[in-house]
Amino acid sequence: MKFVAQALGLSEPAARKLEDRNILREAVIKHPFFADIIEAYNLEKKFGAYEEGTLIAKTNNSLEVIRGYPKIRRALVLYPTLKKHFKGEVAIEEKMNGYNVRIVKMGSNLYAVTRRGFICPYTTEKARLVFEMDFFRDNPHLMLCCEAVGDESPFVPKDIYGSGVHFYVFDIRVKKTNEPLGVREKEKVAEEYGFRLAPILEFADVKRAHEAVIEAVEKLGRQGREGVVIKDVSMKRPPVKYTTSQSNCSDLSYAFRYFNEYARDFMISRIVREAFQSFEFKESEEEFRQRCLRLGESILRPMVESIRDVKEKGRVAEKSKLRFYNLEVFELFKEHLRRMGVDARFSEPAEDNGSYIVFMERYMMSTTDKISNLLKGGFW
Amino acid sequence: MKFVAQALGLSEPAARKLEDRNILREAVIKHPFFADIIEAYNLEKKFGAYEEGTLIAKTNNSLEVIRGYPKIRRALVLYPTLKKHFKGEVAIEEKMNGYNVRIVKMGSNLYAVTRRGFICPYTTEKARLVFEMDFFRDNPHLMLCCEAVGDESPFVPKDIYGSGVHFYVFDIRVKKTNEPLGVREKEKVAEEYGFRLAPILEFADVKRAHEAVIEAVEKLGRQGREGVVIKDVSMKRPPVKYTTSQSNCSDLSYAFRYFNEYARDFMISRIVREAFQSFEFKESEEEFRQRCLRLGESILRPMVESIRDVKEKGRVAEKSKLRFYNLEVFELFKEHLRRMGVDARFSEPAEDNGSYIVFMERYMMSTTDKISNLLKGGFW
């Protein structure tokens, strides 16, 4: 705890108090797989300049501060929001639909840190297979901010990005300060070290960026992709995100399938996005009706499916397929989920080409109980 | 305050404490129109056996306790809910879509008490024109629980019930105890005194009530009506309500038009109803798509309309047409709305056949501000 106090510029008792207030949490499981880390804590909430999800770790020979990935603000109308927020040239990048991880070197190994500031064993195992050490040896002070995507994602499984887990780098930042490289510099580094980048779709003058984004978003939407992040090329101003209607609806499907697990605000905010997009995209009546149907279906189909699941199978669960290269990582991952408060069941690992496939069922207790009670004749 | 303490069985200091905790509120404006009432308070929250909206009033010669109208629980699936809750014969009554008022005699006049326990000047004026005194002279201990509907409703204006304001009696209860008459007794009384009753659609054995309700609700839905209330004929068990898809969607339209004024739960609960109805009504794929489109449109159309209103007219407002027979009542009603925290503007009264027509615009400040900020380029 002393090292945390030192990192945050606090006295040790003040740091202890943060732990009592649940602002500081233990962030790593002690295990040979995480051998470099002696102790680690993360921030559950923003604290001063330090973002939520900041990880503070003590290794054999260093004190690491891995800043949390900053929240990206969302435009509900592109015009005038982009024009007001940016100046000069912006980059329009594809926003991949997976989960955000920061890849860092600590001690002599790589680690994948989740948005909330935990070291995820599953993602760390995959990151160590994908990323070489050369970049980190040359730049020990940097972290790769990536979207982890694919059909073997334990958190956001999607088929559209192909099989397995892939890492798309979208920012390169200084671990300790969160200072980002400019977009062109990031491109150069990615080329040099062979990283996959979240596609940079276009560079545009901010004056016409809203038009370029509308075009890009309509195209991405037809491909079932999530949306874009608009960035100041120099990264001096914070990025802004904007999503496709298909992605808003897909979020809604997810949220309404498990409607009692999710906050009401999650749903309403996505519905509001659709209204503003419809307003700004100047749709025909037929396009508007298509949007209404898409919205209505994305809400009702998953709910009816969940009601049927409870009626027929007694419960609602989210299924995903995982792959482990080392069964110890499987054990570690189970412990990781327990700590996150996730109630999941797993199939026996099945060998597949030197690795192991495991099917995970995450039990959605709150939605199951609510539906079950209503089906038995309970009142709302 | 002493009379309130007496009515609730409290000491006077205890009653004062309830006022300090905002459980007891002053409930009437002093005015010759309300001449019979010396003082009145209502309950903002349930207190012991006394329902939220209970009115306690002191008149020249009596102490009145007008019990709040009890909340009616809602079935999300008709089977097995009805079968579980009722026994023997039930009445299926139409649920009218207006606002709930209790008509009572206090002193020598009639008063219309709103759901929250206030005496509404607008509704009182109309009630005095509609109801004769004979029923109340014969039954001073009873109150008429009515739905006030019509296109001149200040709260829920609807064209489907014709022009003006109409009162449909759905329960007759003992003011002081909330004990209801049985359904057949209510029918007899209504016939004797010439009240309009909320239509009793059918008497059914509870074993097949769910089928009868599905049939009734599909028919009412096609007519744009709200739904049904299912009642134990003896009224020994509390009633249960169930609404049409059209009414759920119409509520959603209203809520999403003024999306920042309304609680998130209001919206989600209505969406959940649609899912359970779709599940229970065993729809064809085409009927299901129709429901999805109806749901999607009921959400998006009003929101886009509100965004346009802010863009073009600077604000979102709800318009309604009111009629006053006495301009003093207009002044009283304005004061009533101010006390309710409603921000409304009014046109000059225009004479119409011995009465006055006034157009009311209720300004939706929260939704207006939110949309306005987003249209100017603010972030969500």
UniProtKB/TrEMBL annotation, chains A, B:
Residues 254-378 form the RNA ligase Pab1020 C-terminal domain. Residues 89-243 form the RNA ligase domain. It comes from the Archaea. Transmembrane segments: none annotated. It holds the Pfam family Lig_C. This is Y414 protein.
